[in-house]
Amino acid sequence: YQQTHQWSTRTVKRQTIPQAKFSYDLSPVEVVVRKGDRRWYSFLTSILAIVGGAFSVMSMTAGVMNFASTHLKASLGKLG
Fold first, then answer.
1. 38-74 pLDDT, tens digit each
2. Which H or E run contains 22?
3. Which residues have C-beta within 8 Å of that of residue 73, sequence separation ≥ 6?
4. What is the pTM of this model?
5. Are the CB atoms for 67 and 59 separated by under 8 Å?
6. How far apart are CA 23 and CA 28, in angstroms?
């Protein structure tokens, strides 16, 4: 991580609008690739984590949709 700064002061006339200028220069991120042995249970754990995460997101989405549809129906007076 590296940070640099520059500053300067300037006198401006009363009729002009002061301005601030910001610029960002994002450095590229280094990616390190290592080749190594993976055990079968490490692969299985990764697969189960992906499946569990997808299930959790879909369950939360279904809950939000159910909640929204119930309130929409209640506001329209169509609850049975």
1. 888 999 999 999 999 999 999 999 999 999 999 998 8
2. none
3. 79
4. 0.49
5. no
6. 16
